[in-house]
Write a structure and sequence with these properties.
The chain has about 150 residues and is an alpha+beta fold. It has four helices and seven strands, in the order ααββαβββββα.
């Protein structure tokens, strides 16, 4: 039996994502035009970037509840997990994929549907639950270092 989330649950998640933007009406306009909206990172969350296949493997080993939300583009093979904005202390030795600095623009589809091959592998929750960077690093086996200086 397939269980589908209620549309209202996805709407609440989309409302949370809109609340993380400086201009929700601009984001809504982009989505209404079936375009990706550009949402700045840094104030509410940061974005890591890495290959999509390790992200899928991480979901298998840890479960999606520890790695969410995660945006993916299967056409280019990349994933963008959202990380909590205040996680700069003590993470300089945690291997993560590229971590984008505050102000970086995440090309985001709406939560409710994905236009094309760019969509949410794991949708945001209205609770604001974000990906645990330590769990991401330990399961993906990705090289590189978290650029803590980019977060300050």
């Amino acid at each position: 039996m397939v269980i589908k989330p209620a549309w209202s649950t996805w709407q609440a998640s989309q409302d949370w994502l809109l609340a993380c933007t400086r201009n929700p009406s601009e984001v809504r306009r982009a989505w209404a035009a079936e375009e990706l909206a550009h949402i700045s990172t840094g104030e509410h969350w940061h974005v890591a970037e890495g290959p999509v296949l390790p992200s899928l493997g991480a979901m298998k080993h840890l479960g999606s509840r520890r790695l969410e939300p995660v945006l993916v583009d299967v056409a280019v093979g990349w994933s963008w997990p959202l990380l909590a904005a205040g996680l700069t202390d003590g993470l300089d030795d945690v291997p993560l994929p590229t971590l984008h600095p505050p102000g970086w623009q995440l090309a985001s589809p709406p939560v409710q549907y994905s236009p094309g091959e760019h969509g949410w592998q794991e949708r945001p929750e209205s609770s604001g639950h974000l990906t645990d960077p330590t769990a991401l690093a330990s399961t993906c086996g990705l090289g590189g270092r978290l650029l803590v200086e980019a977060l300050t």
